[in-house]
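BUG: 3D viewer hangs when loading the predicted structure for this chain

Environment: internal workstation, default settings.
Expected: structure renders.
Actual: progress bar stalls at 90%.

Input used:
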Amino acid sequence: MRVIGIDYGTRRTGIAIGDTESRMALPFEMFEGLPDPQLAAAIEQLVRREAIATIIIGVPLNADGSVSQQSKITERFVLTLQQTIGPKVPLHRASEYLSTHDAEGKLAGHFTRNQKRARVDALAAARILQDWLDAQPRE
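Structure tokens produced before the viewer hung:
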């Protein structure tokens, strides 16, 4: 089953793609500067084009697991995405705690600031998706 992971941001949104068979997530795409309705439409096209069966979206919780201000903003986007895609593709939420920090650490020293900016969100999405895949029972 093919799945995508989403690291949502109000400026940039990273996308990773993977599947439950190989249990591997890879950075795939980054969208920048799209308003939520256009971003949801772009993801919906990606879901159709890549035959995605499930969507995993990172929710930025606080260190203690409580809801953050960004969590509320992400939830608004989740509603927009669900309305755009409809019920045919299940959407699951996963903690994205420290995913961007981890991605930035992996890129440190290898790229300029602008090069990192273009890669970090998709890499963070891959971390979110990989954590979800690792938590799934083996088929």
